[in-house]
Amino acid sequence: MLDVDDLHAYYGKSHILQGVSFRVGEGEIVSLLGRNGAGRSTTIKTIMGEVAPVGTIRFRGERIDGLAPHVIARKGLGYLIMVDEPTEGLAPLIVERVRELLETVSRRGVAILLIEQKLAIALTISQRLYVMGQGRIVFEGTPQDLRKHDAVRKEWLEV
Ligand SMILES: Nc1ncnc2c1ncn2[C@@H]1O[C@H](COP(=O)(O)OP(=O)(O)O)[C@@H](O)[C@H]1O
Ligand SMILES: [Mg+2]
Fold this sequence. Notes:
binds adenosine-5'-diphosphate, Rossmann fold
């Protein structure tokens, strides 16, 4: 569905994304976790063509890196499929509603890339997850894998 390979991105001279690779399969919920400033939003902006990509981005098998944002959006890729911190600042009850909504959308076969800082929601709804730090993917695995890796959580996720 979405395949990102060795993606780099810059803001001026700052090298923000330093070789990010990940994939989201059909109907999968995949989380991209990380602390503030890790580069998660920049990853989405680069996929959407709002920030110039260096690297390969494929959506449904087709190269989209280098296309204009409106062309990419017309292909059906956007901020419904990629949700950037949907639960930020929300009350627990509403967080629960957001979680249900994401699961409903996913059950209809839509792939979801969930950007989060909160571990709890990501651990319960994703099939796989990636942890980002300093513009790179520093961990990938299942929620069970991440539960076992205290060091990864301490170094890259806990505030
Ligand atoms: N428009 C911008 N101009 C310059 N630097 C930016 C801009 N947006 C984000 N950054 C920097 O890029 C890095 C990654 O930010 P961001 O992708 O927003 O992280 P996250 O979404 O994981 O919190 C941070 O160091 C941030 O300060
Ligand atoms: Mg962000």
